[in-house]
Write a structure and sequence with these properties.
- This protein has about 400 residues and is mainly β.
- It has a domain of about 100 residues.
- The protein contains 3 helices and 31 strands.
- The strands form 8 sheets. Strands 1, 2, 3, 4 and 5 form a 5-stranded antiparallel sheet that branches. Strands 14, 15, 16, 19 and 20 form a 5-stranded antiparallel sheet that branches. Strands 21, 22, 23, 24 and 25 form a 5-stranded antiparallel sheet that branches.
- It is globular and about 65 Å long.
- The relative contact order is 0.06.
Length: about 400
Amino acid sequence: MKSISMLQLVCIAILLSFGLSVTDTKAQGTSVDYERAKSLKAKYEAAAIDIAGPATWIGNSNRFWYRKLSKGLNEFIVVDAQTGQKQPAFDHTKVAASLSKALGTSYKAQDLPLTGFRFDNNGSAFFATVDGTAVRCTVSDSLCAKFEGPPRGQRPQGPVASPDGKWEALINNYNVAIRLAGSRDLTFISSDGSEGNYYERQSLVWSPDSTKLAAYRVRPGYKREVHYVESSPEDQLQPKFSSIVYAKPGDVLDLEQPVLFDVVNKKQIPVSNALFPNPYELSNPVWWKDSRGFTFEYNQRGHQVYRVIEVEATTGNARAIISDEPKTFFSYRPANGALADSGKYYRYNIDDGKEIIWMSERDGWGHLYLYDGMTGQVKNQITKGNWIVRGVQRVDPATRQIW
């Protein structure tokens, strides 16, 4: 008879503790098993006391909010950072009653299912999703209603007006054209756009002084579709089919090429792609406030090079203000402060990019560094030690304090 190892004994003990035999490991659980597993979350939350979630600042104010979990009950708290005063973020009882009336479902004051919660800039109202429905609630009167606004981050598709209001930029026949505001007469400032290498409307960005225009010319890649069958959808009894565009390793991706236009002289200024030859993704162009140039971020395919690129407004010369090239890969998910689900990306511009706070793991730990935005050199390491920065809540440029 073969002897049983200690590891095998442990595995058998674990199986038996769940009421399973070794031969039943492939059997599907009963509905009672699933309900018992589902109840574990409620039991753990009922035992937890005063667990505070991540803090989120409200606009540019001195206040922030967080969600507190205590004995299975959720409460939203607002804190004044200057005085330390804490108070409920809103009247939970009245908001629960208003949501129940607006959505036709009964909600409890301390068990509000508010996902994607966020305040507006002045904290007078908040937005959230409740059981799949977007809502907006005002704090002063606790009135909630369905919110039918456009999705966050969605841009309009019409012409893009210049900051001084004199010009409009648009895409016509795959090329960039401009016209005087209110006019229908187009002046084309590009001629190299085509169906297979088109200019993208969403990328059109004016310089603040209205003399320059940045855009991306896109060579489309292969649109591979991945198909799914949802066997038990929440909104119907029958299975549901869906598909998404999802590239696989080796697939040809969309290739974006930034292009700079001098609107005053109606000319195109070429931008070399030597610093961003193999992009997985380029972020949209963002102009400096003084119109000296625009920046975008380059995530190289494979995620082993991540750069902040600046394009000079007069010459179109590109330079890397920041180039992070880790030995493994760059975690480009935002550093959101969570303990178990946080990325390593953080960037904050000080004085219109004259200085930049950047997060990096270059010393083996996730820390903050201060860059000289004009030279691209590291001025100093802000945080240091055998610990990691999980997120930054706020930066005060005046006092140089970081929370």
